[in-house]
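Board work, copied verbatim: Glycoside hydrolase family 79 protein
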Amino acid sequence: MLLHFPGGIAIAISGLVGGTTIVNAFKVPQTPPATSAPINKAQLSVSLEFFTFPDYTNIPSTTNCLANIQTLRGAPPAVRIGGTTQDRATYDPNLTSAVQYTVPDPTVAPSSLTYGPTYFTLAAGMKGDVTIGFNRQLNNLSNVRAAAIQAKSVMKNLLSVELGNEPDLYSGSSPIVPAGQPWNPTTDGSVEKQWFTDLAPDVGNIFQGGVYLQFPSWSTQGLIPRLGSAINTTVSFSGHSYPQSACGGASTNLPSLMNHTGIKLYTNRYASEAAAAHAAGKQYFLGETNSATCGGGGISPTFGAALWIVDYVIQGALSGVDRMYFHQGTIGNCQYCFWGRFIVGAPYYGVAFVSEFFGTDGVHVAEIDDASDALGVYVVYNAKNYPVRALVYNSAYFDGTGTRSNSTVTLTGIPQSQKKKSSISTETKTTTARAKRLTAQSAISRVDQGGVVTIGGGGTFDNTCKNAGTQSFESVVVDKGTTNVTVRASEALIVYF
Ligand SMILES: *[C@@H]1O[C@H](CO)[C@@H](O)[C@H](O)[C@H]1NC(C)=O
Ligand SMILES: *[C@@H]1O[C@H](CO)[C@@H](O)[C@H](O)[C@H]1NC(C)=O
Ligand SMILES: *[C@@H]1O[C@H](CO)[C@@H](O)[C@H](O)[C@H]1NC(C)=O
Ligand SMILES: *[C@@H]1O[C@H](CO)[C@@H](O)[C@H](O)[C@H]1NC(C)=O
Ligand SMILES: *[C@@H]1O[C@H](CO)[C@@H](O)[C@H](O)[C@H]1NC(C)=O
Ligand SMILES: *[C@@H]1O[C@H](CO)[C@@H](O)[C@H](O)[C@H]1NC(C)=O
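↓ predict structure ↓
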């Protein structure tokens, strides 16, 4: 097999595996190729379920997990507060607590709730941009107006406001559905337009439109023309994305979740949505996402899901998605959550790893593999358009049984260290570069079941999401700008140039 690089160079370097010649050689483009994409400072962000947002602010891991991302990226992740329970919430300006509801058991989401002004005081304390989702389903515009005015008045970090969560799932008998009309994208578009236009004079042009789950039947592309001139009241559009479903006990599939080719195909579906928003001068976010719907399934807390996050976030950026907000649901009943009250799960290690790959200096990311096999190979560029790091993801599935396969990847065109040279050129002699590995016993390893996931040999997170253990770099030989790195099945590696 011969790999063709963008730019037409074909390089064959062979090794014999099982009698088949495998070529895994990738040339690092010296400047961001045309296929590269910008990296948003908050590319990987989080979504917190509406009713339980105040509880999240009381968990040390919330602060620490978000702070780690901020340290790695040089900017705080954005926070979206919303979800199913935003459409069950009513604002009570007299409520002294942030939220009030009763549930039969703490792992169950409430069927209705009220929230008060201190809810926004808590939201104002979040470090990054905040988006808040209000209730549209109950059709109480005056109530939402009062809430949004309060939010706007206390939150300097308020980026945007959503009106309704996944309105595509509203029943035809919801209070918001106009009498005698079917509930479909056309009706929803006219109601969104009406609500945006009505509320904008009081809260500003700060709406996040869409918030749809069922793409492509409900889409940003379809919504934009329906908004007409009301487009100027929006800042962004949001789609919700879950590659798998775990609702009603549906079965999930880990090899499929972490399949590099599959991730690329899946994520590319959103490219047209991002393009539509960008053409209107707006940002496009996957405003709520995670591995599987309904809080996640058995695949969600695994190390394989961490690897999925690494590849999915990069592929999202490459598809034009400006930010991806990973949903954190009911505390204590959430398979895909990055953290809970008592533990930091395996997926968070993927969050930290891809954040480290993007770094504080990453401005563009490019894919240099052709997504034809299990290997994902990416390069990050800094503001001077220099390649600064590469990441290799070996998505071959290893479940802990049998022999763990590996792939040796040859990277060519590695630039001479920028510390040594003011302008870029390929290294002409033998030097070394540093590398850092994300690994675990297998793709099915779970921190909550005693699995050991590590970054840089010994780096972990303690139960409050503080860095624990010791991360260290591996050293790889770079000969005339070429290095060979070996990445085992279900593993990822960053090479620092
Ligand atoms: C809030 O309290 C004031 C003063 O007690 C009262 O007039 C008002 O009706 C209350 N508002 C709500 C929404 O309960
Ligand atoms: C709408 O909210 C207001 C308070 O903002 C409340 O007084 C009113 O009863 C609500 N209407 C409905 C139909 O629930
Ligand atoms: C939005 O655009 C419409 C039509 O161009 C214009 O009439 C309106 O004033 C604009 N609104 C704002 C808030 O800019
Ligand atoms: C990954 O997905 C691609 C595309 O759906 C498929 O052809 C391939 O067999 C999958 N690989 C594995 C290891 O499941
Ligand atoms: C890679 O696989 C080969 C062939 O099975 C094996 O000999 C070698 O030890 C493996 N290397 C690593 C780092 O796992
Ligand atoms: C990389 O592997 C190729 C093929 O085995 C070998 O020719 C080359 O010397 C290796 N380069 C380095 C820097 O180890």
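The chain has eleven helices and 30 strands.
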